Amino acid sequence: MTRTVVLAGASGYGRTYLQEIAALEAAGAVRLAGVCDVRPLDAEGRALAGDRPFDTDLGRLLDRTRPDIGIVATPIHTHLPLARQVLGAGAHLLVEKPPLPTAEDWRELVRLGRAADRVCQTGFQSLGSQAVVRLGRLMAEGRFGRIRGIGGYGAWSRPNGYYRRAAWAGRREVDGRPVVDGALTNPFAHMISTALQLDASTGWDDVDAVELELFHARDIQADDTSCVRLRTGHGTVVTAAVTLCAETAAAPVLMVYGTHGHATLHYTTDLLAFDGMRERHSRTSPLQNLLAHLDDDRVPLQSGLDACGGFMRVLEAVRTAPDPLPIDPAWVRHSDGEHGDGGGDDASVQVIGVEAAVRASAERLATFGELGVPWAPAPASRP
Ligand SMILES: NC(=O)c1ccc[n+]([C@@H]2O[C@H](COP(=O)([O-])OP(=O)(O)OC[C@H]3O[C@@H](n4cnc5c(N)ncnc54)[C@H](O)[C@@H]3O)[C@@H](O)[C@H]2O)c1
Q: Among 59, 154, 228, 278, which is disulfide-ready with 252 (CB 3.0 to 4.6 Å)?
């Protein structure tokens, strides 16, 4: 069955949807019914959208096109109003991650989806990896013994241009509305949702005792170098230690520790390593999985909105936490970029020794403070 799709947000990350829809359209799986963006499309966007209706107002476009599916790939604080319009028009929903900026918004959208009897998928694409499915099964079968912990670490570098691309980038709120665009809740959101999925702890009540350490090396509202530790209902300790101010960027990793073995998952590249073996797996995109689920409801939804409770609990803890602490400038280095003055879009900020700190956190399931990381106050001396 060929389903019709409307896309809201066609630049930035939404461009990947425009490209995916074009590929799926060529295969006869979907038909692009229309595109909504508050800004005009660039040449590539126009070429991908072709002669389909374009509108700056999603409600008007939905009235005109009545699609089967509405995709929302816009800034986080616009998700709820746009998702409401999608469901109100009788369409199934695919909303990007993080799905909503508050727990209350998440509960409301889950309720609206159920009341409308529509399927709500999220854009947590790592959950469509067969590496995650395989590792989750191995854990459940006891291959690694009793699971003690899951530790994640990630070190990426985001240059000035990342923060300049949008008014909401690196913000905790915009015009009084929560955004929660910090390292843990947005760029590394997949790390948290994937760890919770592996532990089969995706519900709100599955997550407890959320400890946070939020820092920023850049002069931004949100965190760029952070650590979270929580305990799940199964007794698993889950940590994620991340930075967007790496000296040397590398793909993020989740490590699973059991009483009889361990495994390493590279969740952005579908690579799984355990018992001296390395396996490369395939993945299904959130849109492909939504289409398969709509065709046959025996195909489980891989990243459904109602299975985001555990993640939303962490996001809510970050949203309501005190502001991130600035990292002592003695531990921060500035790379000036091509123009040599530090003001260009390619200039970046690095926290000295941060790769070792995030990795040690994951290996020991410890917070920065417990590790004695020099720019993180020891637990007892925190305000
Ligand atoms: N799954 C992933 O790996 C991944 C990666 C990056 C971003 N994202 C998510 O994708 C979403 C978009 O992020 P981005 O960085 O592309 O944002 P962005 O600010 O660049 O905006 C994306 C597009 O949405 C448009 N837009 C803004 N408000 C709109 C509105 N009210 N109606 C219609 N269009 C509107 C913008 O003009 C832009 O073209 C966010 O939720 C983000 O967290 C997901």
A: 154
| Residue ranges making up the domain that contains 96 | 3-125
pLDDT of residue 380: 60
Atom of ligand 1 minimally distant from the CA of 39: 37
Q: In this structure, are 143 and 120 located in the same domain?
A: no
**Predicted confidence (pLDDT) per residue in 202-235, tens digit:** 999 999 999 999 999 999 999 999 999 999 999 9
Closest Cα to atom 17 of ligand 1: 75
Å from CA of 226 to ligand 1 middle: 23
Residue 383 CB neighbour total at 10 angstroms = 5
* Cα-to-chain-centroid distance, residue 192: 8
Residue 166: CB atoms within 10 A of its CB come to: 15
Burial of 250 (0-12, 13-18, 19+ CB in 10 A): middle
103 CB within 6 A, ligand 1: no
CA distances from 367 to 127, 263, 290, 328 (A): 26, 21, 37, 18
Q: Rounded to the nearest whole angstrom, what is the distance from the C-alpha of residue 370 to the centroid of ligand 1?
A: 36
- φ and ψ at 172, to 5 degrees? -85, -30
Cα–ligand 1 centroid distance for 76 (angstroms): 7
Decide if 290 is inside a domain: no
pTM (predicted TM-score): 0.97
Gap between the Cα atoms of 196 and 170, Å rounded = 24
**Domain boundary residue, one of 68, 98, 125:** 125
User: Is 106:114 a contact under the CB 8 Å cutoff?
Assistant: no
Q: Which residue has the tokens 């070792």?
A: 356
Domain count, the chain: 2
